[in-house]
Amino acid sequence: MVTPGNIDLWNRPRYRHPDGSVSTVYSASFDLPDGRVVLLPQVGYDATGAPQMLDGHQAYQAYKQSAQHLGIFDSREAADNYSKSLHEGQARLYYTADRPSETGTRFPPRTTT
Prior knowledge:
Layout: E1 3-4, E2 15-16, E3 22-23, E4 27-31, E5 37-41, E6 43-45, E7 51-53, H1 56-66, E8 71-73, H2 76-93
């Protein structure tokens, strides 16, 4: 990692997929003009403040506006390795809505619609 991320990982939007799984840091890497690679979250907020999944264009536009990122790396391989590690760490925190996270926080139970 060349530059650590500047996003609060403890306060991420939680996008709930139709199958009940939750994404907080679903991410993609993008090449920067200087040859480095930036890792960006693809979970954000819509105009109403509700969590939403962002496509690549939306994620990159959000980065250009806010400069927020999950890290800047010297290679795509390094970004991908960090992304995997970050995903696994967040998955442990948000393992399931029915169980407490590592911090002891209990999230609302799953509902089906």
